[in-house]
Specification:
This protein has 296 residues and is of the alpha/beta class. It has ten helices and eight strands. The chain has two domains: 52 residues, no CATH class; 241 residues, Glycosidases (TIM Barrel, Alpha-Beta Barrel), CATH 3.20.20.80.
């Protein structure tokens, strides 16, 4: 089990717990039941702390970091993180629908500064709904590690979401590979409802269960039906909203009951419309409204 907590005050404790969970039995002849029992206690304690985690932001910051020291969008994100230090910020960076082919010094500095403000930084990796092989995706993760080694985790976009064991195994392989390479967290985005078997298999640390131009209702986010995800904790789920002219604080509070990661933006997307191709290339004007709600 490879999970962790964003909260800086607790991170040292949890890193130690994770190490203990992963350790092999060092003593020849040691009672396996005792070892397994100890590991189970640590897993349960870790679950307890994650279940108490505050809702945080998952920000697709697909904006080029030109003049990073004076860049209004990046500096606004960093200033807000410092102001709302108790709210987790996970920020996705995306140089070229992935890491690109060459190191960009602006992205290097942007990642450094985001981390300096206390943000967890994720590198964007497309998976083309399972059409890219595991090794193709691995190459992107290798490139992120080589060119931008401070990136914490991976954002798998276009996650496969077919309700089959083969599809789940494909996504799980990607997440496990990322963990073995030292990445955490892994976030996967299918852009639609996700079958519960992906959560049962821990196919990613967090899965985006709703990405749309309209708010889901309570029942949709709850997922309380056979084959859905209501039996898996809110810490494993995220919600992304675009084309929102206003920000509904009550809707955020409803989403907080079922998910732990959220982003709401006015930026628009329209299918097959060249004037609205990307809902994540302008920073949300609703950030302060969201953060005030999350800080309540």
């Amino acid at each position: 089990m490879r999970i962790a907590i964003v909260c800086a005050k607790r991170s040292m404790v949890f890193v130690g717990m994770l190490a203990l969970i992963a350790l092999p039995n060092p003593a020849s002849g040691q009672d396996d039941a005792v070892t397994n029992g100890t590991q189970r206690v640590l897993v349960n304690q870790l679950f307890h702390h994650q279940a108490s985690q505050k809702m945080g932001l998952l920000i697709p910051l697909y904006i080029y970091p030109e003049d990073i020291h004076t860049n209004a969008d990046y500096n606004h994100v960093m200033d807000l993180k410092r102001q709302y230090s108790g709210v987790p910020f996970w920020v996705i960076v995306n140089p070229a629908s992935g890491p690109g082919d060459e190191v960009d010094a602006n992205y290097t500095k942007a990642i450094d500064r985001l981390i300096g403000a206390g943000c967890v930084v994720l590198g964007y990796v497309p998976t083309n709904y399972g059409k890219l092989s595991v090794m193709d995706v691995r190459r992107d993760m290798d490139t992120w590690r080589r060119m931008y080694p401070r990136v914490h985790g991976i954002f798998f976009d276009e996650m496969i979401y077919e309700d089959t064991a083969t599809a789940v195994d494909h996504q799980k392989q990607l997440s496990m590979m990322a963990h073995k390479m030292g990445y955490w967290p892994t976030v996967a985005n299918p852009g639609t409802d996700t079958p519960g078997r992906y959560f049962a298999a821990e196919a990613a640390d967090v899965i985006v269960v709703h990405e749309s131009d309209h708010w889901p209702n309570d029942a949709q986010l709850h997922g309380n039906y056979f084959g859905s995800y209501s039996d898996y904790p809110p810490t494993t789920r995220a919600t992304l909203m675009y084309s929102q002219a206003t920000c509904d604080a009550n809707a955020i509070k409803m989403a907080r009951r079922y998910t732990r990661w959220i982003y709401v933006t006015q930026d628009t997307y329209k299918l097959n419309d060249a004037d609205h191709p990307n809902p994540w290339d302008d920073l949300s004007v609703h950030l302060e409204t969201i953060l005030k709600t999350l800080a309540e």
